[in-house]
Here is the input.
Amino acid sequence: YKFILLNFWLMRNNIVILFGYSGSLKSEMTKSIGEKYGLRIIHPPTILRGLYNEGKTNTLISTKGFWESEEGIKLSKRRLKEDSLDLKLDEMLLEEIRRGDVVMDSYTMPWLTKEGIKINLRSSLQERANRAARQNNFSPEKIRKLIKENDSMSRRIFRNLYDFDIMEDLDVFDYAIKPEHGILGGFKKICYYLNKMGFKPIK
Here is the structure.
């Protein structure tokens, strides 16, 4: 009986929030989960990039590879000094969560809302660097340095904004996986968990 109540509380309004660092496959996982379960798909990094680009936002397009690029690192450095757009983004995301029927990849929502299923995609720095290098035609050594720098700045941004630590305060997550076998293996594990929690696939 308690397990049924827990399932209902976690899945109400059909909300899934994915967390992962650059190169952890969170954008791909978000898209696949949205399509399988009929959920609205939101990529907050794309919205944030649009807010810094004359306010043009698109919730559906992934910014895969951007944040570990040199241009992305420059924008992250800017965010350390200007936090108003990060705050605006989080207000937008909380509103999307209140609407329900949504899956998103977010650095902040696991800590800022009690709603939904929160999944942590855990991949080592080297695994993420190798994956990003293949996608962006960079050397693993160069992309590893950029990803490590981006991880560090992301941690600083959210500690400054909200006083939580994305590398240490991990009790907020309901489920954690290591997608070491690529998106297919990780996706199957997530689907198994979501099905167990009461989510209904549409395909």
